[in-house]
Design a protein that fits this description.
Blueprint lengths: L1 H4 L2 E6 L5 H6 L5 H6 L8 H19 L2 H22 L13 H5 L5 E2 L9 E2 L5 H20 L5 E7 L7 H10 L5 E6 L3 H6 L7 E5 L2 E5 L7 H10 L12 E5 L2 H15 L8 E5 L6 H4 L10 E7 L16 H24 L5 E6 L3 H7 L3 H11 L3 H11 L4 H15 L1 H10 L9 H10 L5 H13 L5 H7 L2 H6 L2 H11 L4 H12 L3
Parallel strand pairs: 1-4, 4-5, 8-9, 8-10, 10-11
Antiparallel strand pairs: 2-3, 6-7
């Protein structure tokens, strides 16, 4: 066994938390590891010259009158205090080591801001990022020296290199560490590093039911599909590798609105529930959703998109369509094909489910009793009172053709993303989340803890939007706060059967635990 062990070399760069202390310690300083044994390679003449110079320097410093004067003062003070019999003999001497090995251990790293900088600082004066970078450079050099040895394999282990290091450096660091004789293992929470890694080289460690599971995201994928996934996994989308659940959305509107609605109506953001909301900037969900599978990442993934059903009347014959109807009919056909494609994708896969707006997010949001929120944006979009009044009157209509057209015009006038940002400013605790959004949340995170659900309920109670009857049935905030989470949830569902949180709880129950 020992013979096999000697055929491997391993360099370990630990998590970067207190690098300055590590670089000062004898056992933890990678500079000393590099210097260890260096004295044996220095020519004898040079070694003797240096040690002689150090010995002379020690003598010269010790012989300085100022140094001798302080030693004499200490001696006299001791004698006057404890007497000549008990007073020890005191001297002050320079103690620079005169052995070359010990001298090399006194070397320290100094850093300049740029390669040609004339002024160089002590490591302790550097930012955490600068100190961490120096530490990693020393460990890399140690690793490179080991590579030159005749070993069967070399292992480079790097623990959480992202601490205080610029994102560009994180990516470059990972991309550069590759060799035919090398196994590089990096443990990280950095989305920048994960986005730079080949999906086939990633292992995801996840905690489930008090145990760890290991997922291989590329398992069973062809090289072509792996390449396609890697092109989509940028630093934003690669958060899905660290999430407890994922919601893939079609565009920026849902990316902005879903977290904002959750925070406004439930008091918790997706991040607080371990959910990553990721925009695909298109409707090609397959390129990412394929990662969620029994053979790969066993986490829930909700897909949120639009059916784009026409909300205006369409003639029986297509050739009778005007321009508006042609556009609506074309969008409806695309939505139907998208649904067909996604249905095939999710069939037989317990980890993926698709959720659809009947028309588009903006139209369905407005039709879910959220006219007030849309009307609140009108004054910020139109400066003329007459125009504002006409738009608000159209939004108050019970006809989806009227309010649907008007919502489209608002979004087109300022752009869909800016319109969604204006909508976030109008959200309240009594804003109604569309059911398909609530279902997507419930599917992505069916294991939401009971205390988090209680937090949502108390948030809604404190918002004072539930109505007198419900508040009367629930009782005081203080009494509710004293209840155990499970008891609180049961009471809330009974008192507010039509509330959005109760609807979410029903869907969580429907999708069950994973």
């Amino acid at each position: 066994m020992s013979a096999i062990h000697n055929e491997f070399s391993c360099t370990f760069a630990k998590a970067l938390r207190d690098v300055v202390s590590d670089l000062r310690g004898y056992r933890t300083n990678p500079l000393l590891a590099l210097l260890r044994g260096a004295e044996s390679t220095i020519q004898i003449e040079a070694a003797e010259r240096i040690t002689a110079a150090v010995s002379q320097l020690n003598s010269d410093i010790s012989a300085l009158p100022e140094v001798k004067g302080i030693a004499t003062g200490i001696q006299n003070t001791l004698q006057s205090t404890v007497g000549h019999t008990y007073s020890p003999s005191v001297s002050i001497e320079s103690a620079l080591p005169d052995r070359l090995e010990k001298l090399l251990q006194k070397l320290s790293v100094t850093i300049g801001e740029t390669p040609g900088a004339s002024y160089r600082e002590e490591l302790a004066e550097q930012s955490l990022g600068g100190a961490n970078l120096i530490y990693l450079a020393l460990k890399m050099l140690e690793y490179e020296l080991k590579l030159s040895s005749d070993r069967v394999a070399h292992f480079l282990l790097i623990e959480e290199p992202e601490a205080h290091i610029h994102t560009h450096i994180q990516k470059t660091l990972f991309e550069k560490q590759s060799s035919k004789k090398t196994q590089v293992i990096v443990s990280t929470h950095s989305t920048h590093i994960s986005s730079a890694a080949k999906i086939g080289s990633i292992n995801v460690l996840a905690r489930r039911s008090n145990q760890a599971e290991v997922y291989q995201p590329a398992r069973g994928l062809s090289n072509k599909i792996e390449g396609r996934v890697e092109r989509y996994l940028d630093a934003v989308r690669s958060t899905l590798l660290f999430a407890k659940g994922v919601i893939l959305v079609e565009g920026e509107t849902e990316l902005v609105m879903i977290p904002a609605m959750m925070k406004a109506t439930l008091g918790l953001s997706p991040d607080e529930l371990g959910i990553s909301v990721i925009s695909m900037d298109c409707a090609f969900f397959q390129h990412i959703a394929i990662l969620f599978h029994d053979d790969r990442i066993r986490r829930r993934c909700s897909i949120v998109t639009d059916l784009d059903e026409a909300f205006i009347d369409l003639p029986d014959e297509e050739d009778e369509d005007d321009d508006e109807q042609k556009h609506a009919r074309a969008a409806q056909k695309v939505g139907a094909r998208r649904q067909e494609s996604l249905s095939a994708l999710v069939e037989g896969n317990q980890w993926i489910e698709a959720f659809y707006a009947d028309h588009t997010f903006e139209v369905d949001f407005t039709g879910t009793n959220n006219v007030r929120e849309v009307k609140d944006t009108v004054d910020k979009i139109y400066p003329q009172n007459a125009k504002r009044n006409r738009v608000k009157q159209a939004l108050d209509s019970d006809s989806i053709e009227d309010y649907g057209r008007q919502v489209f015009k608002l979004a087109d006038k300022v752009g869909k993303v800016w319109f969604s940002l204006l909508l976030t400013e109008a959200l309240h605790a009594d804003t109604v989340m569309p059911s398909y959004i609530l279902r997507a949340i419930a599917f992505a995170a069916p294991d939401i803890r009971a205390d988090a659900l209680k937090h949502m309920g108390l948030f809604r109670v404190k918002s004072e939007t539930l109505g007198e009857d419900i508040m009367g049935a629930l009782g005081s905030v203080e009494a509710l706060g004293a209840l155990a989470p499970e008891a609180f949830i049961a009471k809330y569902r009974e008192a507010a059967p039509d509330d959005g949180l109760t609807e979410l709880l029903t869907y969580i129950e429907e999708y069950g635990n994973t």
